[in-house]
Specification:
- The protein is α+β, with helices and mostly antiparallel strands.
- It has a single domain, classed as Sulfite Oxidase, Chain A, domain 2 (Alpha-Beta Complex), CATH 3.90.420.10.
- The chain is built from 4 helices and 10 strands.
- A 5-stranded mixed β-sheet has the order 2-1-10-5-6. Strands 3, 4, 7, 8 and 9 form a 5-stranded antiparallel β-sheet that branches.
- β7 and β8 form a beta hairpin.
- The relative contact order is 0.24.
- It holds the Pfam family Oxidored_molyb.
- This is Oxidoreductase molybdopterin binding domain-containing protein.
- It comes from Halolamina pelagica.
Length: 163
C-alpha cells in the first residue's frame, strides 16, 4: 500500500471494539467509536512521508478527522497547552504543544481505503506539514491533554529502531 513499509503489529493492538479516548485537562472527557468519527467532517491531504530510517513514501493520500475538531468537542481547560498522544501498544506516546496538534489529522484512511492495521490503523496521527516521522503515532487510542509538558517515549523508541 502506497510504499509504506509494513511492520509487525504488537499483540496489544486490536481493532475489535476500538475507541479513541480524549481526556485530561478537559471539561468534557469523551470516548469516540468509529461511527462517531465517521459522522464528523473530514480533512484530507496528500504528501510524502520521509522516515529517519532513510526511506520515503511519495504521494500518500490521508483522510480522517482534524484533531482540532475533536478537541473542540471536549472543551480543553484554559490551562491546557500540551497533549500526549498514546498508541494502543502501551509503550509509544508522543507529546505535542496543543496549538501544533490542532492541525494534525487522525487518519482513518490511506489512499482511499480504510487504514490497515499494519500501517497504523484504525487511526494514525499524521501532520499535514513538516514533521518528524516518529511523530506519526500509529494505533492511536488516547489523546491526553495536560497543562505541563508531558514526558514522551516516541523519539527514543523510534530512533532506537533506526540505529
Amino acid at each position: 500500500m502506497a510504499g509504506l513499509p509494513s511492520h509487525d503489529v504488537p499483540e496489544e493492538v486490536t481493532t475489535d471494539d476500538w475507541t479513541l479516548t480524549v481526556r485530561g485537562s478537559v471539561g468534557r472527557p469523551r470516548r469516540f467509536d468509529a461511527d462517531d468519527l465517521a459522522a464528523l467532517p473530514t480533512a484530507s491531504f496528500t504528501g510524502d512521508f520521509d522516515c529517519e530510517a532513510g526511506w520515503i513514501a511519495k504521494g500518500l493520500s490521508w483522510r480522517g478527522v482534524r484533531v482540532g475538531d475533536l478537541l473542540d468537542m471536549v472543551d480543553p481547560t484554559p490551562a491546557s497547552q500540551f497533549a500526549l498522544v498514546h498508541a494502543m501498544d502501551g509503550d509509544y506516546a508522543c507529546s505535542f504543544r496543543l496549538d501544533r496538534l490542532e492541525d494534525a489529522v487522525l487518519a482513518l484512511e490511506l489512499d482511499g481505503e480504510p487504514l490497515p492495521t499494519a500501517h497504523g490503523g484504525p487511526a494514525r496521527l499524521v501532520q499535514p506539514a513538516d514533521a518528524d516521522c516518529w511523530e506519526s503515532v500509529k494505533w492511536v487510542d488516547t489523546i491526553e491533554l495536560t497543562t505541563e509538558p508531558p514526558d514522551d517515549t516516541a523519539r527514543e523508541i523510534a530512533l532506537g529502531r533506526v540505529e
